[in-house]
């Protein structure tokens, strides 16, 4: 059996977030070196930091913003000996929950400390502000141990000039991707410009690309069958808008191609013929270019068109 | 023991727009949920469980959004479930909620679906660059357009049918204050003059990208008796799935869609849907899916669906109005789109649809599908409770 392929797959995207009134005030406050909480309703109103839009107990909408101190107490912690990409500090640090003075709940952040021996529940800490602040949780660079005086507050209620209303929240996921046994074999064969499908032992249908199992019968497929390189265009569209990251001049034709011997169509570009002359039933063959894993496109073979009845189940 | 009848007693949605930059995702879902509670004249305390749905996590990059949204939806201390079936999710979410009531697990359930497309890029989320695989060559509509051409070939429908659907749906949207697109100067000529993006699909025949949420309050017989406004009663509901690609797949009229509709009709005692159902709110992301689904759902024989569209039967004042709300063609917060279809069906039988109300809407079908015709969800609602 040929080797099963593997490759890194990194998925990342800069998601945007509209903040809404409460998070907008909180993050704008950080930009101005002010930490805000939100007070819950009722006589026993508690101050939640970081603030939330809706009361976790009563579900009521919250908007009573109150300033809390940049100093506080560690309520629990965990040492992080090997910081990873994107974490607040690049040297070993403690993850801490800090209850800021004036708050009833704790905020998760990083504590810069020389080692785990320097950290304990009950430790007094204060905010270390980032030098450049933009209205993001990273405006708090981290916390640091602090045994000085309490800080005088100005009673800020969340009114700021030029509030931050949205942030960019980049997400990144690192995978190792493997297409598995069947697709690896298919891809290896493509290297020899052969298209190797697999036949279901139960329904006898021929799958290309093969998935290693028949989606209808739910049984493993193993019998290899070479299909193509000729086939029939069963249906298509004419693409008139340029797709991102795709270096193909428009208009071009994107078609479903039933390779001879296959029981379902695969998708590909049809070229070597004016786009407005492509038709259902057109007979085509794969065209390979140097260095490309897949056929670059499919071009007419010059054979007579296939009868509709021969491919109507393969649209 | 028979099932508990399920009633829709509250419906809420946001005004769907391209971008709701004034609210967080929590604020968006809250708005729809609050309106549904207000419609039902209920409070958070009256809700026993919350069932929420949205499209794939990559669409917004919030993993497990149900955790983050529990506070906003008053779900603390209550069961909260998240449902996920691609574009059909709004429909299947409502059905999961309905089944909780039908099974007498809960008396009153809040169900909600949402999407904030402006915070992401759905096309990116659907076309991650997988190693060793050929990149998708055609963009969003390129996936659907070959199926439309296949339908045209199979049915012999004239080229104009798709534009008639788009023209109708955009006019219907003008009567729906919650619809995203309000094209006041729409004409058939304008629809037909729009550029072909993925021939045979024109720009004017595609759905927009929307931010929005939709919520419903579902309850049992006792809850319905206390409701301040007429309830909609679920007469049947079903889900079906099949792979996106397999040998023998009929992308024009998928078997799973036919089976799903047949199950709903069996539950509701419908033998002739064309005669016994008064209107249909179906998931039409590209105009031509109206005639395709009319056939798939049994409202027309194979190859005949376009004739209903062409002859005006599916117009708001036609004999079988389709997509009274303006449909997905006018509003598409993907995760919510299925629930908006279900909610519109309920609004119609409750007589609460306002300017886009259909006369004599006693039984209306709500339909959702998604994931390359992989998932189907439907319900039939009526203005009277099911026979017990």
Quick take:
Chain A is mainly beta. Chain A is built from three helices and 18 strands. In chain A, strands 7-6-5-8-9 form a five-stranded antiparallel beta sheet, with no helix packed on it.
What is this structure's SSE topology?
The complex is a heterodimer of chains A (315) and B (388).
Chain A: E1 7-18, H1 20-31, E2 35-39, E3 47-48, E4 64-68, E5 71-80, E6 93-100, E7 107-111, E8 124-129, E9 140-145, E10 166-177, H2 180-190, E11 195-199, E12 206-207, E13 223-227, E14 230-239, E15 252-259, E16 266-270, E17 283-287, E18 297-300, H3 308-311
Antiparallel strand pairs in A: 1-10, 2-3, 2-4, 5-6, 5-8, 6-7, 8-9, 11-12, 11-13, 14-15, 14-17, 15-16, 17-18
Chain B: E1 7-13, H1 25-40, E2 49-54, H2 65-69, E3 80-83, H3 89-102, E4 108-116, H4 122-126, H5 139-155, H6 161-174, H7 188-193, E5 196-199, E6 201-202, E7 211-219, H8 221-226, E8 232-241, H9 255-268, H10 273-276, E9 279-281, H11 289-296, H12 305-310, H13 327-330, H14 334-350, E10 363-370, E11 375-382
Parallel strand pairs in B: 2-3, 2-4, 9-10
Antiparallel strand pairs in B: 1-7, 1-8, 4-7, 5-6, 8-11, 10-11
Structural description of this entry:
The complex is a heterodimer of chains A (315) and B (388). In chain A, the strands form five sheets. Chain A has a five-stranded antiparallel β-sheet with strand order 7-6-5-8-9, with no helix packed on it. Chain A has a five-stranded antiparallel β-sheet with strand order 16-15-14-17-18, with no helix packed on it. Chain A has three helices and 18 strands. In chain A, 36% of the residues are buried. Chain A has three domains: 159 residues, no CATH class; 49 residues, no CATH class; 88 residues, OB fold (Dihydrolipoamide Acetyltransferase, E2P). By secondary structure, chain A is mainly beta. Chain B is an alpha/beta fold. Chain B has a domain of 135 residues: Peroxisomal Thiolase, Chain A, domain 1 (3-Layer(aba) Sandwich). Chain B has a nine-stranded mixed β-sheet. In chain B, strands 5-6 form a two-stranded antiparallel sheet. In chain B, strand 5 and strand 6 form a beta hairpin. The longest helix of chain B has 17 residues. Chain B is globular and about 55 Å long. The N and C termini of chain B lie close together (11 Å). The mean pLDDT of chain B is 95. The interface between A and B is large, with 66 and 64 residues.
């Amino acid at each position: 059996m040929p080797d099963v392929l593997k490759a890194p797959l990194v998925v990342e995207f800069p998601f945007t977030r509209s903040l809404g009134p409460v998070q907008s005030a909180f993050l704008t406050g950080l930009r101005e070196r002010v930490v805000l909480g939100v007070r819950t309703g009722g006589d026993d109103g508690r101050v939640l930091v970081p603030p939330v839009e809706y009361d976790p107990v009563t579900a009521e909408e919250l908007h009573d913003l109150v300033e809390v101190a940049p100093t506080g107490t560690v309520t629990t912690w965990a040492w992080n000996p090997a910081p990873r990409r994107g974490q607040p500090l690049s040297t070993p640090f403690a993850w801490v929950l800090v209850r800021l003075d004036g708050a009833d709940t704790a905020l998760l952040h990083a504590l810069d400390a020389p080692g785990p021996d320097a950290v304990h529940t009950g430790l007094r800490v204060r905010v270390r502000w980032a030098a450049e602040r933009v209205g993001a949780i990273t405006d708090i660079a981290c916390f640091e141990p602090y045994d000085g005086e309490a800080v005088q507050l100005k009673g800020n209620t969340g009114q700021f000039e030029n509030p931050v209303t949205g942030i960019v929240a980049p997400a990144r996921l690192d995978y190792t991707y493997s297409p598995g046994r069947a697709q690896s074999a298919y891809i290896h064969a493509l290297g020899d410009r052969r298209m190797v499908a697999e036949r279901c032992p139960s329904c006898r249908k021929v799958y290309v690309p093969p998935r290693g199992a028949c989606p209808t019968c739910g049984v493993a497929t193993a019998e290899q069958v070479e299909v193509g390189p000729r086939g029939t265009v069963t249906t298509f569209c004419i693409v008139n808008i340029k797709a991102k990251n795709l270096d193909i001049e428009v208009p071009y034709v994107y078609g479903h191609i039933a390779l001879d011997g296959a029981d379902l169509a695969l998708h590909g570009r049809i070229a070597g013929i004016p786009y407005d002359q492509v038709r259902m039933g057109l007979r085509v063959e794969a065209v390979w270019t140097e260095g490309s894993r897949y056929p670059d496109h499919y071009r007419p073979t010059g054979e007579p068109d296939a009868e509709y009845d021969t491919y109507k189940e393969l649209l | 023991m028979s099932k508990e009848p399920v009633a829709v007693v509250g419906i809420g949605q946001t005004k769907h727009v391209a971008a709701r930059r004034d609210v967080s995702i929590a604020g968006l879902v809250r708005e729809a949920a609050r309106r549904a509670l207000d419609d039902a004249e209920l409070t958070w305390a009256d809700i026993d469980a919350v069932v929420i749905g949205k499209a794939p996590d990559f669409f917004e990059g919030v993993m497990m959004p149900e955790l983050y949204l529990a506070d906003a939806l008053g779900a603390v201390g209550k069961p909260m479930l998240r449902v996920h079936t691609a574009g059909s999710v709004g429909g299947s979410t409502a059905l999961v909620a309905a089944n909780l009531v039908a099974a007498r697990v809960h008396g009153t359930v809040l169900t909600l679906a949402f999407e904030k497309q402006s915070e992401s890029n759905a096309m990116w989320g659907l076309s991650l660059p997988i190693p060793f695989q050929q990149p998708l060559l055609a963009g969003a509509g390129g996936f659907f357009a070959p199926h439309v051409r296949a339908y045209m070939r199979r049915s012999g429908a004239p080229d104009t049918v798709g534009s008639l659907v788009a023209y109708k749906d955009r006019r219907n949207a003008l009567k729906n204050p919650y619809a995203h697109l309000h094209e006041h100067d729409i004409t058939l000529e304008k629809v037909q003059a729009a550029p072909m993006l993925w021939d045979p699909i024109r720009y004017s025949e595609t759905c927009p990208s929307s931010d929005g949420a939709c919520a419903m309050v579902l309850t049992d017989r006792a809850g319905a008796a206390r409701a301040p406004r007429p309830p909609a009663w679920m007469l049947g509901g079903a889900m079906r799935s099949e792979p996106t690609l397999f040998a023998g797949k009929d992308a024009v009229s998928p078997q799973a869609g036919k089976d799903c509709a047949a199950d709903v009709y069996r539950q509701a005692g419908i033998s002739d849907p064309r005669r016994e159902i008064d209107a249909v709110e179906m998931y039409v992301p590209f105009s031509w899916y109206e005639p395709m689904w009319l056939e798939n759902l049994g409202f027309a024989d194979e190859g005949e669906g376009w004739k209903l569209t062409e002859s005006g039967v599916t117009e708001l004042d036609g004999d079988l109005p389709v997509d009274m709300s303006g449909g997905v063609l006018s509003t598409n917060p993907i995760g919510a789109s299925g629930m908006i279809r279900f909610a519109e069906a309920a609004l119609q039988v409750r007589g609460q649809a306002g300017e886009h109300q259909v006369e004599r809407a006693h039984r209306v079908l709500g339909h959702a599908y998604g994931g390359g015709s992989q998932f189907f969800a439907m319900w039939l609602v009526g203005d009277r409770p099911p026979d017990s």
